[in-house]
Amino acid sequence: MASLGLAIPPQSYLFRFLRRYNPHLIHLDETLYQFKPGEFLNPNQQGRVLNASIDIFDIPSLSGRRVNTYWRDWVLPITDISIGKSEDSFNMVWYKVGDEGYTHSGAIQPVLTITNPLVAEIPIDGAIAEVTVPFTDARWDPADDEPVAYRFYYATTHWVTEIVKDEKGNPWYGVRDDKWDYMFYVPSAHLRLIPPEELNPISINVPSENKCIEVHLPEQVMVAYEYDEPVFMARVATGAKFSNGDYTTPSGRYMTFHKRFSRHMARGNLAANGYDLPGVPWNSYITEEGIAFHGTYWHNNFGRPRSHGCINLTSQAAKWVFLWTMPTVPPEKEWIYEQTGTAVDIIS
Question: pTM for the whole thing?
Fold first, then answer.
């Protein structure tokens, strides 16, 4: 719970699931049922505002009295968690903000502020790294007064290829953008190079044919199985219908044949439901058209369709899926593309 990956399976579905299977076999994605408020909170837990603005209420309910308003990218202390009343009945999680009051979790990215030591060297082919602060500005050149290319957010992943120092001697990591092939520069303290041992595959001794993922569209839940027994469950947000098109995630059988540690996803007009999202983490693709399981840093409101076809997960859950499914991506490679992979059933 330290990282607050709050993707809670719907209660009725969760209880049916737990009645059928032995609960100790199931790695629920940080479920809050039967928890003591605040019991698992990191004392340094923070939350970044995701929407243009959010309101703070005196109780965990939209019917409460509004006591404050904060704007996008404000970083707030998260001091407690409550199950409250909400217009979004599929997500009833509220965060307590300091001693001020409560805000709905859907528009808050749980974050921490952790700085990192400079590594001695970067592998010749580069290495994957993750942002460990609420956000950091990636610049066109390594200096604080250089123009900002993008803002990189907590838990996003980026391929680091070099270490450079600015005129003051401050170290920066050079990050290669995988979509445009540009170089961006980020203060080294804001990125953690992920050690190879952390990227070891999960359940490597289970044959690929004995692994399977089910994505249940009506319940917005994914369940991973080994030998027909469930081992992982997480809430998702799948494809939705928008004014400019139907992006519903199609049902059927697929496989995770193509995987990337990081992907810069961009499409369309930003003013008309387009997006430009660098560093989308832990991508496990199931179609040539780009539908994938991946981590999500632009919303925290799982349980209802809202994507352009992909299967949105918390970054923690997406990392688990990435490491559990086949094929395995070697730490020295940015991606892998095979003709085989782990089976995925999308069920409508």
Answer: 0.90
